[in-house]
Amino acid sequence: MFAFKAIVLLIWMSHFFIILSPHLSIRFINNIETRNQTMISEFILLGISDDQELQPVIFSLFLIMYLVTVFGNLLIILAVTSDSNLHNPMYFFLSNLSFTDICVSTTTIPNMLVNIQTQNHSITYKGCLNQIFFIIGLFCFENFILAAMAYDRYAAICHPLRYTVIMNSYFCGLLILLSLFISMVNALIHSLMVLHLSFCIDVEIPQFFCELTRVLNIACSNTLINNILIYISGGILAGIPISGIIFSYTRIVSSVLKISSAEGKYKAFSTCGSHLSIVSLFYGTSLGVYFSSPFTNSPKKTAAASVMYIVFPQMMNPFVYSLRNRDIKVSLKKLIGKKHCFL
To answer: Where does it mainly reside (predicted)?
Structure first.
């Protein structure tokens, strides 16, 4: 129990360090004279629609989705931290996933809501770099968390007698810290590479947040190295977690099929249901937008489609786990019951 709390505390401290890191890096870079760079103070985020009549609808819709995302994921974190029965690797990874989902939504949606409310669609140069850093870092981190959760299910089903030895607190903490460090370094490299780009008069980004590929499209200087870096880092840092997930579930299916009773098979598969739903939601929406973008002529439609991977999965994750997971349901009922007692 003490080890679990110590690891959780260390992870939360590392999260706050990551939050401060882009500001520290940009402050450091500001002291360095960048070579032949056209200095700009802000970008213009064109958003999802230019129709003024739709702005109140878009504002209300995104505000509701943001509140649901934050409130739902906070409930998951509170349920896991307050219930000692949930102090195990699977829910430890889930609480980190929920925290990451809150950070992803907070990186993009509040700025968009402010822009709609003030009718000012500009974002500062530093603010754009911060968004690039967080979005890349958090999505990379989420990839690793989903892979760690798959490995946890593999260890629980394929090696039940050695599960507590394999998935001990220190190994889980080290896994999260290493994933966080790799994600931070990857995001920092991409952010630093943007600093070397020159921008012309046209600084309009057809998106509601600073997406790296969109920023590269409006750069005047050569972005070949940036694009090569995107493909290499994306292939490695997305390919490894996806390969880990596929490997884990291949072994899980192989082990479950060896179980003779139908009840035993159902019980084994039921522990993977929530995670498989989240994996399908996360990768399905991302790949759907990626493959549909070349066939979409309108940048506005592409911006609207990006909601499916930058907002929707983060909002749905708490529902997936609260509806499909009995332990979370019980813990949430206890948590809500305690609140009523205090009231």
So the answer is: membrane
Q: Cα separation of 262 and 207, whole Å?
A: 49
Angle CA 99–235–210, to nearest 5: 55
Q: What is the pLDDT of residue 107?
A: 93
Nearest to 145 by CA among 180, 105, 184: 180
pLDDT at 29: 46
What is the reported pLDDT for 35?
41
What is the DSSP-derived secondary structure letter of residue 160? G
Cα distances from 146 to residues 7, 72, 127, 215, in angstroms, run 19, 19, 28, 28
Q: Give the whole-angstrom CA distance, residue 179 versus residue 144.
A: 6
The pair of structure tokens assigned to 264 is: 């035993």
Provide φ and ψ at 42, rounded to 5°.
-160, 160
Q: Do residues 257 and 292 make contact, with C-beta atoms less than 8 angstroms apart? A: no
| Residue from 9, 197, 211, 207 nearest 96 by CA | 9
Closest of 190, 216, 69 to residue 133, by C-alpha: 190
> What pTM did the predictor assign?
0.86
Tell me the three state secondary structure of residue 199: strand
- Mean pLDDT calculated for residue range 23-49: 60
Say how far apart CA 167 and CA 329 lie, in whole Å.
24
Distance CA 328, CA 91 (A): 9
E strand map for the chain: 42-45, 122-124, 204-205
Contact 284, 307 (CB under 8 A): no
What is the amino acid identity at position 62? Answer: F
Q: Where are the alpha helices (DSSP H) in 83-211?
A: 89-118, 125-158, 163-166, 169-195
265-296 CB burial, b ≥16 within 10 A, e <16: eeebeeebebbbbbbebbbebbeebeeeeeee
Scanning the structure block, which residue is given the tokens 């977690």? 241
182, 193, 211: which is closest to 29 by C-alpha?
A: 193
Furthest CA-CA distance within the chain: 70
